[in-house]
Each structure stands twice: as structure tokens, then as C-alpha cells.
Design goal:
The chain is α/β, with parallel strands linked by helices and about 500 residues long. The chain contains 14 helices and eleven strands. The chain has two domains: about 40 residues, no CATH class; about 425 residues, Alpha-Beta Complex (Amidase signature (AS) enzymes).
Length: about 500
Amino acid sequence: MSVVLPTPDQLLDVAEQCGLSLTDQDVASFRGLMQGSVDAYNLVAAMPDEVPVVKYPRTPGYRPSPEENPRNAWYRKATVKGAASGKLKGKTVALKDNIMLAGVPMMNGSSTLEGYMPDFDATIVTRMLDAGAEIAGKAHCENFCMSGGSHTGAVGPVHNPHKMGYSAGGSSSGSGVLVALGEVDMAIGGDQGGSIRMPASFCGIYGMKPTWGLVPYTGIMPIEIFVDHTGPMTANVADNALLLEVIAGDDGYDPRIKSPKVEDYTKALGGGVSGMKIGVLKEGFEQPGAEAGVNESVKQAAKRLSSLGATVDDISIPMHMVGPAIWTPIGVEGMTQTMMYGDGYGLSRSDLYSTSLMDFHRGWRGQADSLSETTKLFLLLGTYINNTFGPRFYGKALNISRRLTAAYDKAFEHYDLLLLPTTPMKATKLPEPNASREDYVARALEMITNTAPFDITHHPAMSLPCGMVDGLPAGLMLVGKHFAESTIYRAAYAFEQAGDWKSM
């Protein structure tokens, strides 16, 4: 790929885009001045890129048939065996399909990306393989991860593991299903508005969104740097803590990393909750669409923790109710400018850029009609806001998010954990193929109200299953201080060991 000097007509078009008026003499002058810079671009183009070496052999795998994949949870089956020994030896892992696995196709839920083949492994992939894990393949996810439901992916809906025809949650939909069905021991999800915790809630598994800046996002297709999180989804707490132990820590690439305090999280298991103080967040039970059955299951879970020795109090943080509104400009404009117009990465951070992904993803502009309705909605709104107001609302929302962080941190002066429903409702029915756009979007966004605020305040938050309501799981969320994942694991393990969650 080389850069050529713009023709006079091309330069005039660019000038118009920039609001400049150029004479023919100006055009000739600027073209001459550009030649040296164009030569520099071509020098860069001729140099080899700087990407990590792929350490473990693999094949592209295959797309499983409907008979082999009845809930449509797999995008691709492709076995990659890791080291001969390590903490994850004997464990199988599924990757959300926004995570780069070199040599194995990736589409991130969108037909516009279908056919893309990553050329290096995400940092967390290398770490898991180095620890002896076996990657089993790529799990289906939502269209560019822009949904909390499981119906927006380009290859069809993902069905709930407990009830066909119902949502598995999103956007890490396939990851949740594969763990719940026992097809893999562990999975990796991504979370910008709740996309680890929401499918964990709907599927009845354990999903941890770590503190922002604890786990490197390197080699994972971003949505927006300020809310990008990746973390473990597992069938039990011990596996969750073990997987986080392996993937956490600075990798020298990801600028999101904020001097993380990495711990041996498995050592927290068995510590119990005696002496722990837990605040039951009143506003978490008052979200739009809140279901009485889910609220009651979560309240019973709080009573279980109390019976195990924790001090459990009702508390109020009124600002929690406006958390989703503060999240909206960050999510909408960040997605539009970084993931879409920024070709998946944007500018101005010292990241490890996947130029192959950036080149391939540019093609969405000629296929935009095939995007999901949720991606179209965010793209349209984000473009309108930027055209009309610029990025001021993004900046203001980020400023205000510090006030929301402080509101939670004030509660953490007195409490070790906050407790609330992960999602206000249990899994909903998947939209019919002829559903209105309004219903399609509602089923994608209605469940994010309790999860999204902690993506912008960056507190660690974990979803635990805590009962069945009409044959579908309910989810309890525990939220901790920054980098206090061990405290969450202590409480989660005590809760899990106290009895079968399904019989609560």
C-alpha cells in the first residue's frame, strides 16, 4: 500500500471539506509542499509492521453446523493447544469474537467484517496459552458488540441455555451460553455497558468485569477506550478467580493500564464474609422494567450473605439512577468516533494497533445498510451530535462521571461491597423476525441500567446467579472498590458454597 500525491482536483475536494478556498496557484504550492511528507508516508509503508510473534500452531477451524450448534453460540470452532503445563492446564476456553486469534476468522458479529483474519494474538490469548489453556474457538457476539440482547449478530440470534427462544444476554452472548452448557470450562467476554455481566445474569453463570486498567485490552477490537473492559466468564467462582489471575497485569502496550494491583485472586477464596459490610443499593431495585421476582431473588441472596456473617444494610446512592444517562454520550460518541470512523482504533493513544483490522474494517462504509439496527442507531446519533455540537457532550459526560465515581466511593468508605440486581429483569423473549425496529432496539438496551454506570466509574463488578424465576436465572451483582477483586471473590465464593443457587 503506497500513498500518492493528491491530484489538483482531489486537493480541491479536500480543501472544500476543510472549509478552505484555494486558487490554482495555492493548489500547485501545497502539492509541492506535500511531496516530502508523502515520501515519509511511503517510507513508513515500506517498513515491516511491529506485531507480536504467534507462538502456538493453529488452523482456521470451521463454522459448526446448526446440528452441532443448536443455540448458535459458536461462531468458529478452532482448537489451539497451549503450553504443556501451567495454571490453566486442562481448561478449555472460548473467546468472544471481538478478540484476535491469529489465523482464525473474526467478524465481531458483523457481516461487514466477515472474512477478516487477524495476524496476531491478543495479549490475554497468549497469556492463557502460556498457562496451558486450550482455546476451543470463537463465541458468537452481537453486531459490533452494540447490544445487551442476543439477537443482533449477523449470523442470527443466540438462544438462552435454559430456554430456547429467549435471550442469552449480550454482547458476550455466545460466551455465556457455552459456559452455561458446559461446552467449555471458561470464556472471555468484553464489557463496555455490561456485556460480561448481562449474559452472565441471563445465562446463570459468573461474570467478572474487572477494574478498568487491570486486564490489557491489547488485540481486542475496541468500542471506546474509556469503557473498554475484558474479563472472565465461568461456571464457578474458583475458575473465575483463576482465569483473572492469568490474564491480569500490564503488557507494555495498553495505555488503559493504571498501575494495577495484581493479586493471587484464588487465595481470597475461603476467606468468608464474616466482618464484611455490604450495602444493598436501593436504586438498583427501582430501575425501569424491574421485575418483582428478580428483586426478591436478589434480596434473598442478601439475606444469605447476612446469615454467613456479613453486615448487610440498605443504602441509597441517588446518583446511580442517572448513571446510564452519563454513560450515553461516552458510549455513543466514543463508539462512533473510535470504532466506526476511527476504523476500530482512532488516534492519540500508545496502543498496539492492528493495521490489518483497520484496513479491513474501513469497508463498513460501503456496506452500512447491513449493520444492525442498534449499530445504525448509535452511528446516526453519534454522527449527528458530532456534526452539530462537536465532542463537548462526550467531554462533559466524562467530567461528570468523576462525580458519580465519588458517590460510589463515599459509600465504599463505610462498605466493602455494594449489592444490587445485575439486570432488572430475567431473560426476555427474542424478538420475532418481523419485530418493529422499536421492539428490536428495546430488547437490546433495556437491561443495561444497573451495569453501565460501573463501566464509566471503572469499579470492578461481578454477576452471580441467585435463583430461578419462571425457569430462567436471576443475577446478583457485587461491586467493589477499585482493584478490590479479591473482596468480591471472597463474598462470591462464600455465597456459592452456601448452597445451590438454582434452588434458592
